[in-house]
Amino acid sequence: MSFKSLEVSIENHIAHVKLNRPNELNSMNVDFWKELPVAITEIDNKAEARVIVISSTGKHFSAGMDLAVFTSPNSIPMNGDPARMAENLRRAVLQLQQAFNVLEEVRIPVLAAIQGGCIGGAVDMVSACDSRYCTEDTFFTIKETQLGMTADLGTLQRLPLLIPQGIMRELAYTGRKFQAQEAKEIGLVNKVYPTQEAMLEGVMEVAREIAKQSPMAVAGCKEMINYSRDHSVADSLKYMATWQSGMFRPQDMMKCFGAKAQKVDPDFEPLLPIKPLFS
C-alpha cells in the first residue's frame, strides 16, 4: 500500500501505520482523511495482521486538523441556502467521523504510540484506539474549545468512557493541556516511556503478545468489549452467549493445549480475508 500521508508496513502479523508528515507536525490534511480509513480497512480485509500500531514521525504525534481541509477546492461550502449548507455540513462531519470509527470497527486491536503534541483531532483519533501509550514529553489538548468550536469527531463521545467524568468535563470546557503523567493517572494511557524509541519497543512487545494469541479469540474480545461499553450488562451477557454458540470451535483451544504440552507457541490460522461479494 502506497500513501502520501502515511507509511504502512506489515511484519510478523503486526501492521505499523505511521503518520508521515513530520515537517507539517503530522497535521491531518486532505490526504490523511482519504488514506487513513482505506489503510486500516485494507489491513483488516487482507487479514495478514493481527494487531495494528499507529505511531508518527517527528517531534509531535499530530497537530490535529490541517486548515487546508477547509480551503481546498472540494472543501465544505460555507455559503448558499442555509438549510442545504447545514445538511451538507452534517454529512461532511459524519464522513470525517467514519475515518476514526473504522479503528473500532475493524476486527483487530489498534494501539496508539504517542509522542509530543496530541492535539485536537489527534485526541479524537487516539480515543477510538483500543489502547494508548505515550512518552514523557507528550501533552494532550481538546483544542477545539479554545478555537471557538465543539470537538465533533469522537472525543466528547469516547473520552467519558475512558476517564472520569469530572476530569473529562474540565478538559473539554477549558481546552487546557494535560501532560503524560496526568494522562496516566486518569487512565487515558496504559504506560509512559522515557523516549519514543523505548515506547515503540514497548508497544511492539505488547503487539507481539497480542499477535501470538488466537485471532478468533482476540476478535471476540474486541467485539464483546465494544458491545458491553454501549449496552447493559444483561444485554451484553446475552450477546456473549449468542456469539459463543455461533463462533466457538475447539480447534484453537486444542492448539493451545498441544503447544503448552510441547512448550512452544501455538500456530493459529489467520482470520479469513474480507472480500467484496460478487466481485
From TrEMBL:
Superkingdom, taxonomy of origin: Bacteria
SUPFAM superfamilies, A to Z: ClpP/crotonase
GO molecular function, one term: isomerase activity
Keywords: Acetylation, Fatty acid metabolism, Isomerase, Lipid metabolism, Peroxisome
One Pfam family recorded for the sequence: ECH_1
InterPro entries xref list: ClpP/crotonase-like_dom_sf, Ech1-like, Enoyl-CoA_hydra/iso, Enoyl-CoA_hydra_C
Protein family: Belongs to the enoyl-CoA hydratase/isomerase family.
The protein, known as: Crotonase/enoyl-CoA hydratase family protein
Organism expressing this protein natively: Alkalimarinus sediminis
